[in-house]
Amino acid sequence: MAMLQRLAQLSRRSASLASSPFAASYAARSMSTKMTPAAAIKAMEGLQSKLDDAMQKMMQEKGDAFSKNEFYKMVDETPELKEALSKYRELDMDVEWSWARIRSMKAGPLTAPPVTVTVTGAAGAIGYALLFRIASGEMFGPSQPVNLKLLDLPAAQPALKGVMMELNDCAFPLLKSMTAADDPMKGFAGCDYAVLVGAKPRSKGMERADLMKANAEIFSVQGKALNAVAPKAKVTVVGNPANTNALIASANAPDMNPDQFTAMTRLDQTRAEHQIAEKAGVTVEEVDRVVIWGNHSASQYPDISHATIQGKWAKEVVTDEAWLKNEFIPTVAKRGAEIIGARGASSAASAANAAVAHVRDWFLGSDGRWVSMAVPAVGDFGMGTGIFYSVPVVCYPGGVYKRVGGVSIDPASAEMMEKSRLELVEERNAVAHLLPK
Ligand SMILES: NC(=O)c1ccc[n+]([C@@H]2O[C@H](COP(=O)([O-])OP(=O)(O)OC[C@H]3O[C@@H](n4cnc5c(N)ncnc54)[C@H](O)[C@@H]3O)[C@@H](O)[C@H]2O)c1
Questions:
Q1: Backbone angles phi, psi at 95, to 5 degrees
Q2: Longest Cα pair distance anywhere in the chain, in angstroms?
Q3: Nearest residue (CA) to ligand 1, atom 29
Q4: Of the ranges 83-97, 277-291, 405-419, which one carries the lowest mean pLDDT score?
Q5: Ligand 1 proximity of 198 Cβ (cutoff 6 Å)
Q6: What pLDDT does residue 75 have?
Q7: What is the tens place of the pLDDT at every residue in 197-254?
Q8: Residue 295 Cα, ligand 1 centroid: separation in angstroms?
Q9: Can you give the pLDDT at residue 35?
Q10: Is 124 in the pocket of ligand 1 (CB under 6 A)?
């Protein structure tokens, strides 16, 4: 896994060689190939990106079945790639060696093709906490340039302009371009990743059903737009009700694979991790495999049955069942409301942090760690299909995730999970008119 991640990270960057110590040895080598250093560097980058693209493609197709030997076999059987590899070897001694060296270099001028990410609701509170972290490299990595496409309502455009001025004022080296739009067809055009934050907030006296309907319309329009102008995009829904909004967007994007859509339950996961770490008196990194099942709502089930704390079973460390049932689960499930009560506003910075972590892992891989994401139910865990249900997944570099299989479910957990499933089915029924058959 570590090798896969390393190779994939390499494949995503063709880090600049020009300003590096490598350039010196490169220049020496280029003399033997009778090329100027600059020409040699350029040639090497071109060849490398050809090989990188092939590696990315293979990794996307094969997920964790990807192996380096298989990659080289495929290169050997593809004349264009074989030629690229042989020229690459003429320019440098050894591909593996140069990859490792490029990987270990600090990023110089950044020449990898930018990732284009659309953020909706960009002028809102979460948008404000999120955009600067994307532009600084926290979402896609410290050597990965980004194009930002910012989508918000017409009335929010003046505020969005102000946010863009601030982004410019930061002079982020990774931020290659930035555009604003109020039309989803423009805002999503050509994006690789989309983070759908923008949603209608619940106003005073508004019924949950009315909120659901208002948001359902937004996400059906956005699903259609994604289908038309960004059919390869990987989509993360943050705006509430997140699971059902993801279902609506996906159902309105018939040319896209439902697996391209996810809804965010990462904030619930990090909330749960903190609660457990505090209770056990350990650091958060020592807590692993906390799972969020179900809906991003009060019906969710934060589960530590499979978790470990400092490598021991969490249930053997946190043995206070009453605390788990009466404090831990309700605190995590109702944390959003508690924060609104305390702050007078919905969680924004922590939600943005979770969005960074969710997309980062989806793009770069979770390095074997379990992370929770609401994804299309496929019938495992008795969930049926036709809803977006949060489950543990492991992410692999390049936008691949796989459900964790073989997780045993005890009767108490099954009951909690079923409660959340029923709520999602109810939500789905409430927006059935927006789900094309
Ligand atoms: N999944 C989670 O863990 C989680 C956590 C916190 C908040 N949320 C949800 O995220 C959403 C955004 O929260 P916020 O605090 O940023 O709200 P906010 O009200 O501050 O900002 C929302 C932004 O979305 C914009 N918007 C509304 N409709 C839009 C549309 N059709 N297209 C594009 N933009 C549109 C608004 O103009 C506004 O700028 C809410 O639905 C909130 O409940 C989810």
A1: -65, -50
A2: 76
A3: 198
A4: 83-97
A5: yes
A6: 87
A7: 999 877 767 777 788 888 999 999 999 999 999 999 999 999 999 999 999 999 999 9
A8: 18
A9: 56
A10: yes
Of the residues 221, 224, 240, which should be mutated to test ligand 1's pocket, given the most ligand atoms within 8 Å of the CB?
Answer: 240
**How confident is the prediction for the chain on average, in pLDDT?**
85
CA–CA dist 260, 257 (Å, integer): 6
3-state secondary structure 52-67: HHHHHHHHHHHHHHCC
CB contact set of 309 (below 8 Å; sequence gap of 6+)? 276, 277, 280, 282, 286, 287, 288, 317, 318
Going by pLDDT thresholds of 50, 70 and 90, the confidence category of residue 380 is confident
Q: Residue 408 burial by CB count (10 A; 0-12/13-18/19+): exposed, middle or buried?
A: exposed
> Do the Cβ atoms of 163 and 128 come closer than 8 Å?
yes
Residue 215: CB within 6 Å of ligand 1?
no
Which of residues 170 and 35 earns the better pLDDT score? 170
Between 36 and 106, whose confidence is greater? 36
Separation CA 332–CA 34 (nearest Å): 64
Domains and CATH numbers, the chain: 3-104 (no CATH), 115-256 (3.40.50.720), 266-434 (3.90.110.10)
- Using the mean position of ligand 1's atoms as its centre, give its distance from the Cα of residue 200 in Å: 6
- Given the CA of residue 240, which atom of ligand 1 is nearest to it? 41
Å from CA of 152 to ligand 1 middle: 10
Residue 155 alpha carbon, nearest atom of ligand 1? 37
Whether residue 274 lies in the annotated active site: no
For residues 94 and 88, what is the distance between their CA atoms, to the nearest angstrom? 8
pLDDT reported for residue 63: 67
DSSP letter, residue 258: G
Angle at 192 between CA 435 and CA 165, to 5 degrees: 105
Nearest in space to 358 (alpha carbons), one of 130, 135, 145, 114:
130
CA neighbor of 18 nearest in space, from 48, 47, 40, 51: 40
